[in-house]
Amino acid sequence: MNKRMRRAITAFASGASIISLAFVENMPEMLKYTLLLVGIASVGFLIYSEAKEDQINEKVCHSEAEIKTVMRELVREKGRVAIMSRDLSWVDREMEAYISIKKDDALICVQKETELTKRLMEQGVNVKYYGHVGFEPVSRFTIIRYNKKDHQVAIANTQNQVKGRRKRTFKHVIYQTMPNGSQQDIWINSLAKDMISLCELIGKETE
Predict the structure, then answer these.
(1) Dihedral sign from CA coordinates of 1, 187, 79, 65
(2) Whole-prediction pTM
(3) CA 128 – CA 73 distance, rounded (Å)
(4) Secondary structure of residue 45 in the 3-state scheme
(5) I need a surface site. Which of 13, 99, 100, 176 has the fewest CB within 10 A?
């Protein structure tokens, strides 16, 4: 029995316990109706609470254009933004302009120097290179409101699926933590911030 099923059974059992009291003999009618309503409301509330707790805050992209739309929204968030990437291949001219506007509130950590990172540095963006230590992270992520307690992490996973001989589907899932979310989100937020802080410390401003 999985965790979600156990929670559902617990919710129904709790509500049933309250509802059963309404069938006790010699109980005033008004109290019976009150217990019935409370029992039904309790079941509904518990199920809703469990559903909200299990809700996953993610966006599924099926094209490069959709990815850029999501990333544009993240970069434009108020507060400092920190980006951990390999080479910023997803940054086009429009995105570059957004990052440049936030130059005082943007931190870019990349593996190697590119023409794009050179331009960003010329425009005053803080860029750090980590490739010199032989480090190549598996994860690529962005932290929004990096300088605030309610910071969030957007971390991506790309899946290329082949159907048939020539047809290929593209699925890019961007999971975004919640500032006051599950314990898992709290751990992800802390680890991501630690990684950015480390890269900021050991990173070079020139490759």
Answers:
(1) negative
(2) 0.66
(3) 23
(4) helix
(5) 13
99 burial level (CB within 10 Å; 0-12, 13-18, 19+):
buried
Q: What is the pLDDT of residues 114-141, one digit of tens each?
A: 999 999 999 999 999 998 888 887 778 8
- 130/207 Cα distance (integer angstroms): 8
Report d(CA 77, CA 142) in Å as an integer.
11
Q: How many beta carbons lie within 10 A of that of residue 80, not counting itself?
A: 18
* Nearest alpha-carbon partner for 108 in 91, 89, 129: 129
pLDDT at res. 162: 43
Spell 5-38 as b/e; 16+ CB within 10 A means b: eebbeebeeebeebbeebeeeeeeeeeeeebeee
Dist. CA 34–CA 21, nearest whole Å: 10
Is the domain spanning 58-202 CATH 3.30.870.10? The answer is yes
Q: Which residues pair with 168 in a beta bridge?
A: 162
| Per-residue confidence (pLDDT) for residue 6, from 0 to 100 | 55
What gap in Å lies between CA 142 and CA 156, rounded to an integer? 9
Q: 139: helix, coil or strand?
A: coil
Which parts of the chain sit beneath pLDDT 70? 1-29, 31-56, 158-170, 206-207
- Residue 150 DSSP SS3: coil
